[in-house]
Write a structure and sequence with these properties.
2 domains, 4 helices, single chain, 7 strands, rod-shaped, 3-stranded mixed beta sheet, alpha+beta, about 50% helix, 4-stranded antiparallel beta sheet
């Protein structure tokens, strides 16, 4: 009887330490760094030496390497590359029709600098508009005595295309400076 109790205790100790070893080897990726559509239900993403795993309804599914985004392939659990990525990005989880999981790396883009967006759009619009009308003025100077008529005709012809290009320059400048001045 005494040997049986010792065996049961030894088995219990070894199983609990083995379970602790399994939990230490399987590391959960923070929920803030994982996005999954609601139709997938409640899932968790884990990483160990074998790769990435999706845990759904208590069942563990290993994600095959060819179904991972190229930037997530062959990354070890303690890789600084993975930690750096998760600091500035997240993993998008989807499920294929055959039931396998697909993981894509996504960046969290900076943005939200309202003043930067305003300044960028104003500068972008102004610079493109100034450049377009300056070219018209420069070309009309070569018309000699017909310069006022050439300037008027060129302005009539190119005012709308210059305005369209200036609007595009304003949008590009606004987006660029909004991202540059947005929250880190």
């Amino acid at each position: 009887m005494k040997k049986r109790i010792q065996f049961i205790l030894a088995l219990d100790i070894s199983l609990s330490s083995f379970n602790g070893f399994l939990n230490a080897a399987l590391e959960e990726i923070e929920k803030a760094s994982v996005f999954a559509p609601s139709h997938l239900g409640k899932i968790a993403l884990f990483h160990d030496e074998e790769g990435l795993h999706v845990l759904k309804d208590g069942e563990r599914h290993q994600v095959k390497n060819h179904l991972l985004d190229w930037s997530l392939q062959n990354i070890s659990k303690d890789s600084p590359k993975l930690k750096r990525f998760l600091k500035n990005g997240y993993i998008d989880v989807n499920q294929a029709e055959n039931g396998e999981y697909l993981l894509e790396a996504r960046d969290r883009l900076k943005g939200g600098g309202v003043f930067g967006a305003w300044l960028g759009s104003t500068l972008g619009y102004g610079l493109v508009s100034f450049a377009g009308h300056s070219v018209i003025l420069g070309v009309s100077l070569f018309a000699g005595p017909a310069q006022p008529a050439a300037f008027y005709a060129l302005e009539k012809m190119f005012a709308i295309p210059i305005h369209s290009a200036a609007c595009a320059g304003g949008v590009a400048g606004g987006v660029a400076l909004a991202v540059a001045t947005g929250p880190v």
